[in-house]
Design a protein that fits this description.
The chain is α+β, with helices and mostly antiparallel strands and about 150 residues long. It contains five helices and five strands, in the order αααααβββββ. It has two domains: about 80 residues, no CATH class; about 55 residues, OB fold (Dihydrolipoamide Acetyltransferase, E2P). The longest helix is centred in the middle third of the chain and has 23 residues.
Length: about 150
């Protein structure tokens, strides 16, 4: 069936497949089918060039399509995510991470490695060396909802 379809439609079967996949990306967004559709269009282009040669059989076409799909997926994903982590506010929704480097006074002593500090209007649980209440500490890391501190 596949062989007959490809023989009847010629190299245009790949063009149609590529266009159908690109249109399907609109209906099912996810940024995946677009790269497979591009591979279909490229296979169609190669089919237009090599259709009359004896070695461009349907098995070779499917192998080329699979290889171009994998290559376009890899290159496309890499291109899409190339500058993803660049931001002028890298800690925007990471409140604990945005406190790293700040200093504050302990409101409860750090006893057995745990205490509390008030930064702004929030009281945070801190971990660090045992220190008395009122000690000045610097936030060095955020570990979930706790802050790790050291003596400032």
């Amino acid at each position: 069936m596949i062989t007959a379809l490809i023989r009847e439609m010629g190299p245009w079967a790949w063009w149609i497949l590529g266009i159908v996949l690109l249109v399907a990306e609109i209906a099912v967004p996810g940024n995946f089918l677009v790269w497979i559709g591009i591979a279909g269009l490229l296979t169609g282009l190669l089919s237009n060039l090599f259709w009359e040669t004896g070695w461009w059989v349907w098995q070779v076409q499917w192998l080329v399509f699979a290889a171009l799909s994998a290559l376009s997926l890899y290159l496309g994903r890499r291109w899409m995510y190339r500058g993803r982590n660049l931001s002028d506010e890298p800690t925007l929704n990471q409140r604990g991470a945005s406190l790293v480097g700040r200093t504050a006074d302990l409101i409860d002593p750090i006893h057995n490695g745990r205490g509390r500090v008030k930064i702004g209007d929030t009281i945070w649980i801190v971990t660090g060396p045992d220190l008395p209440a009122g000690s000045r500490v610097r936030v060095v890391a955020s570990e979930g909802s706790d802050l790790r501190v050291e003596v400032a």
